[in-house]
């Protein structure tokens, strides 16, 4: 993991790599590094969480896999990774809006509205994915009926 981080830092400052990347993939720029970092964190996080879930299930049950638990774990991790992607996209959209405002663009115009709408939609998507994560957790753990709190019996009560 540390070697991968060192490699990415080296590639970030290595000018021929930037030139190659910009020529090979037209929409990749180092100005949207926030989203690329969130994507990297999401992919690495998904791989690590999936491996830990698989390893935990495999070694806990003596070599037998509980497929239902693995499916719910994978689904929950995938939804949380979607939240990370949305958060990275939101940060990138905020950065782009800040850059737009610093460059003294007109405040009320369609470009400003697009950037503001992107931020709002990314926040809404992150909230929806987070709620979906809790819904999947509720299906996994089961629905617990709500019981009324126990009544305290008082010494001077009129019961």
Explain what the structure shows.
By secondary structure, this protein is an all-alpha fold. It is built from five helices and no strands. It has helices at residues 2-13, 15-24, 33-60, 67-102, 110-141. Helix 3 (33-60) runs antiparallel to helix 4 and helix 4 (67-102) runs antiparallel to helix 5.
Poorly predicted sequence stretches spanning 5 or more consecutive residues: none
Mean residue pLDDT: 78
Secondary structure class reads: mainly alpha
Rounded radius of gyration (Å): 24 Å
CA-based shape = flat
Distance between the termini: 66 Å
Number of strands: 0
Order of helices and strands: HHHHH
Estimate the strand proportion: under 5%
What is the helical fraction, as a range of percent? over 70%
Identify the notable features of this structure and list them briefly.
mainly alpha; 159 residues
TL;DR of this structure?
This protein is an all-alpha fold and 159 residues long. 74% of the residues lie in helices and 0% in strands.
């Amino acid at each position: 993991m540390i070697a991968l981080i060192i490699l990415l830092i080296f590639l970030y400052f290595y000018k021929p790599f930037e030139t190659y990347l910009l020529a090979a993939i037209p929409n990749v720029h180092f100005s949207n590094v926030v989203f690329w970092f969130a994507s990297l964190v999401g992919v690495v996080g998904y791989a690590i969480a999936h491996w830990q879930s698989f390893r935990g299930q495999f070694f806990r049950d003596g070599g037998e896999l509980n497929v239902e638990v693995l499916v719910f774990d994978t689904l929950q991790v995938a939804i949380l990774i979607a939240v990370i992607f949305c958060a990275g996209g939101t940060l990138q959209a905020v950065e782009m809006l800040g850059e737009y405002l610093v460059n003294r663009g007109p405040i009320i115009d369609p470009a400003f509205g697009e950037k503001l709408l992107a931020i709002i939609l990314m926040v809404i998507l992150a909230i929806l994915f987070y709620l979906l994560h809790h819904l999947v957790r509720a299906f996994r753990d089961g629905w617990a009926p709500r019981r009324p709190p126990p009544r305290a019996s008082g010494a001077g009560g009129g019961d």
